Amino acid sequence: MRAVLQRVSEAQVRVDGELLGETGKGFLILVCAMGGDTEVQAEKLAAKVAKLRVFKDDQAKMNLSVRDIGGSALVVSQFTLAADLRGNRPGFSTAAPPAEGERLYLHFAQSLEKEGVPVATGRFGADMAVSLVNDGPVTIWMDTDQP
User: What fold, for 2-143?
Assistant: First the structure.
C-alpha cells in the first residue's frame, strides 16, 4: 500500500458540498492499495502511521505520535498514488482493482482505529474536494514495499 501523510491542524473532505469527514490536529492520509496488496500490508501501514513520531514535543522536536497528542486522522482513498509516469499521460494499472482497493482502504482505516487513532473517511471512488491546513509543512510518503 502507498500513503501520503500530511500533518495537519485541520482537514475536511466533501462530496457535492456535503461534509463527509474531518479531522483537527493529526493526519490527512491519502492511501492507495496496489495490486497484490493484502490485509497484512494495510495493518502494517496502520501500525506504522500510529507510531510515527512527527508531532512536536515541548522542546519543539518531532518526537510524538498522533496517539501521543490525542490527534485523529482523515483517510481518503487516492488511486492516483499508483501513477506510472513513463509517458506524459499517467497509467494506473498497478493500483488494485476497485473492489479490492475499496476493501483494503476500509481495512486500513479500521486498522488505524484499532491502533487507537480516531478516523474519519471520504467516499471511495467519489470525486472528492479535500481541504487542509498543512502543519509545518510536514508531508511523508510511505510504501509498504519499501523497507
Answer: D-tyrosyl-trna(Tyr) Deacylase; Chain: A; (3.50.80)
pLDDT tens digits along 60-78: 999 999 999 999 999 999 9
Q: Confirm if 75 and 123 have CB atoms less than 8 A apart.
A: no
Task: Please pick, among 27, 55, 79, 108, the residue that the annotation labels catalytic.
Answer: 79
Q: Take residue 84 and report the three cell numbers written for it.
A: 506510472
92 is catalytic: no
Question: Residue 43 and residue 137: Cα distance in Å, rounded?
Answer: 26
Count CB atoms within 10 A of the CB of residue 90: 11
- Give residue for cell 491546513: 133
Q: Reply yes or no on whether 6 is catalytic.
A: no
- Least Cα distance to 16 among 132, 117, 129 occurs for 129
Q: What does the domain layout of the chain look like in residue ranges?
A: 2-143
Residue 79 bears catalytic tag:
yes
The residue annotated as part of the active site, out of 78, 108, 121, 144, is: 78
pTM over 0.85: yes
pLDDT tens profile 21-48: 999 999 999 999 999 999 999 999 999 9
